[in-house]
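pipeline: protein-struct stage 2 | run 1193 | Putative acetyltransferase
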Amino acid sequence: MIITTGRLDDPEVVGLLRLHLAAMHVHSPPGTVHALDLAALKHPDVSFFTAWEGGDLLGCGALRRLAVDHGEIKSMRTAPQHVRKGVAAGLLRHMIKVARQRAYLRLSLETGSGDAFQGAVALYEKFGFVRGEAFGGYVASGFNQFFHLPLQAVGADGTVSG
């Protein structure tokens, strides 16, 4: 699996993002979808990653800068034909590494509840994310849930603090 930055102009990537947004709307109550659309993913505070094997798009994810020391995981989606092959874990591992390189002290994410979100929640918990408070302007509801992962800061020289 090769993980690259960008490629938001690739038709396959655009299709996967459309699938992601549509699924979020199907499995979420009205007004509770916080997935980023294509325009929002192009914001300078967002780094968008895609995973590939040969010419096949495996999945995508984004890392949004909330503050100098705080990032948010967004837009995680595995292409349907590559589910349960470790794609999401590979993307999440990559984004955690990037967050550490940027000296983020915490990564957070917001996700939904119910059967459609159980796989994602299990993945985040496997990586050490723990349930916590709302962040970044989100308003807690009976549907959404929030997870946080404390990180050690890695300096430009490779030294670890925290």
